[in-house]
Amino acid sequence: MSNSLGPFTVVVPAAGVGKRMLSACPKQYLTIENKTILEHTVQRLLSHEAIGHVVIALGENDEYFPTSSLANNKNVTCVIGGKERVDSVLAGLQSAKVVQEQWVLVHDAARPCVQHQDLNQLISYCLKNNHGGILASPVRDTMKQATPTGVVDKTLDRSLMWHALTPQMYKTAELTTAISTALTNGITITDESSAMEAFGYDSGLVSGSSDNIKITQPEDLQLAEFILQQQKKNSN
């Protein structure tokens, strides 16, 4: 795709330990076909023509990254992340590589299956509308809101509900200010969109592929491997 502002940089928070995976190493370093999840994710991003650089926020005592193929990639920069995902994102946004750029994308380290066509749509939407947006998937199931005791309170209107995915793309200065201010004021931030919402910025919903899964549970690893294999077949 052609654009007048690229190539873009993507911040990838990868300082988490992924406790739900019940593994000996952080989930981003689990392997699929002899390649770590983080390598799959970053290489997928860098293979897109509009993405020129990835900034990875690593854990302070990360002992796995130096042995990965990404350690010597000239299009990858590392910063030290923080305790929570939002802290790692902010560290990436404040890096020398990102701070001067007009736009930035943020993508989960454990989403190796994101498709180039979805990246195209997200970037095009944000540039066309001159405001940020997120990849998202419409909710398909009937959604219930629970009471604190774990019984159904009410059924929600799923036609207005979306699963938030990544990447999420925003103007760098606005996102940095929104996250910094939210942290200062004790506002809970679960993704970049939630920070932007808190301060009244528009955040568009760009429909993305449902196979852009986040590897969270042990069974997700096999599903991601299957999706990557199918994507490879379809691209041949």
Domain unit count:
1
Average pLDDT over all residues: 93
The number of helical runs is 6
What radius of gyration results from the CA coordinates? Answer: 18 Å
Order the strands across the largest sheet as they lie in space: 5-4-1-6-10-7-11
Indicate the CATH class. Alpha Beta
Helix content estimate: 25-40%
Which fold name fills CATH's third level, the topology? Spore Coat Polysaccharide Biosynthesis Protein SpsA, Chain A
Task: Please summarize the sheet with the most strands.
Answer: 7 strands, mixed
How would you summarize the topology of this molecule?
Elements: E1 8-14, E2 31-32, E3 35-36, H1 37-46, E4 51-58, E5 76-80, H2 85-93, E6 103-106, H3 116-129, E7 133-138, E8 143-146, E9 152-156, E10 162-171, H4 172-184, H5 192-198, E11 204-207, H6 218-235
Parallel strand pairs: 1-4, 1-6, 4-5, 7-11
Antiparallel strand pairs: 2-3, 6-10, 7-10, 8-9
Helix pairs in contact: 4-5
Question: How would you describe what is shown here?
Answer:
The protein is an alpha/beta fold and 236 residues long. It has one domain (8-228): Spore Coat Polysaccharide Biosynthesis Protein SpsA, Chain A, CATH 3.90.550.10. The chain is 30% helix and 24% strand. The protein is built from six helices and eleven strands. It has helices at 37-46, 85-93, 116-129, 172-184, 192-198, 218-235; strands at residues 8-14, 31-32, 35-36, 51-58, 76-80, 103-106, 133-138, 143-146, 152-156, 162-171, 204-207. The strands form three sheets. Strands 5-4-1-6-10-7-11 form a seven-stranded mixed sheet, with helices on both faces. It has a two-stranded antiparallel sheet with strand order 2-3. It has a two-stranded antiparallel ribbon with strand order 8-9. A hairpin with a 5-residue loop joins strand 8 (143-146) and strand 9. Helix 4 (172-184) crosses helix 5 (192-198). The radius of gyration is 18 Å and the shape is globular. The mean pLDDT is 93.
